[in-house]
Amino acid sequence: MLCSLLQERDCEKQRAQEQTKRADDLHVENLRLQVELARYKKWYYGPRADRLAASGDLAQVLLDFAEELEQKPICPDDVPPQTEPEYELRRVKRRKGRRHLANFENLPATTQVYELSAEQRACPCCGLERKEIGAEESWQIEYIPGRFERIQHVRKKYACAKCEGAGESPQIEVAARAEAAIEKGLAGPGLLAYIVTSKFADYLPLYRLEDIFTRQGFEISRATQSVWCGDVADLVEPLYERMAARVRASHVVATDDTILPMLSMGKTQPARMWVYVGDATNPYHVFDFTLNRGRDGPKHFLKDYQQVLLADAYGGYNGVVAGNAITRAGCWSHARRKFVDAEKAAPEIAREAVAFLRTLYAVEKQAQEASVAERFELRQAKSLPVLTELRHRLLAWKEQLLPKHPMAEAVNYTLGQWTELNVFCKDGAVPIDNNMSEREMKRVVLNRKNSLFVGNPRGGRTAAILASLTSTCRRHEIDPQRYLTQLLVNLPSWPARDLDAWLPDQWKLRQAARLATLQDTAITDS
Question: Which CATH architecture describes the domain 188-330+434-526?
Answer without folding.
Answer: 2-Layer Sandwich (3.30)
